[in-house]
Every structure is written in C-alpha cells, then in structure tokens.
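name: query_chain
kind: protein
chains: 1
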Amino acid sequence: QVKLVESGGGLVQTGDSLRLSCTASGRSFATYTMGWFRQAPGKEREFVAAITGLGAATDLGHPARGRFTISRDKAENTEYLALQMNNLQPDDTAVYYCAASNVGSTWYPSSYDYWGQGTQVTVSS
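structure:
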C-alpha cells in the first residue's frame, strides 16, 4: 500500500524556520519526482518545490525561492523528503502536501500520482 505521510508542521512566528518531512513507502519512488505543494483557505493548491528522481535536480516555486530548500534521501524502499523553510511569513500559512509524480519535475498538481494528507503550517505575525 502506497503511503505518503507528512510531519513537522506547527505554529511559528514570523521569521522563524520549520522543517517539514515526508515519508513515502509502499513502492519504489527512486525515479519519481517528489514535490511539495501548499493550499491556503480559499486558494488553489500552489507548487512550492520539487526534486527529481535520485535528487538530480530541484525546482523551486515562487514562494520558495531564496527561503526554502528541498532534499530527499532513501533507505531500502522508503523515500524521505524534506522541506527546510526559513524566514517564514504569515503568507506561508497553509496546509503543506507531499506528492510524487512519475512524469518529471512539474508545477501542476494534476501530474502527481500520490499525495499525503498534509500538515498544517501557521505563521503568526
């Protein structure tokens, strides 16, 4: 059974840092692009960052550039994805989702095959 589970969300203050983690299991994700998206209330799901299979390349969405870093690691049949978020701002408040895509780096949620349940990040001003 394929499962993506996010963790690390919480309530922080403006300027703080937070590290989100995602554990992906149930199949091999070695060649999958792994990505982070976020969705704030009343808004569409937004691309944050992605990293291609084997960590060959990264792609950062507009909200992530200059502040966030994406990384991945692997142990046996489990893929570990991380999103280091620095200098958080109230606009970063959203539910953050981990996802896996078999079509390469992409900004479009519809291209992702597997999704986690999300983890809430709240940044207070």
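note: The chain has a mean pLDDT of 95.
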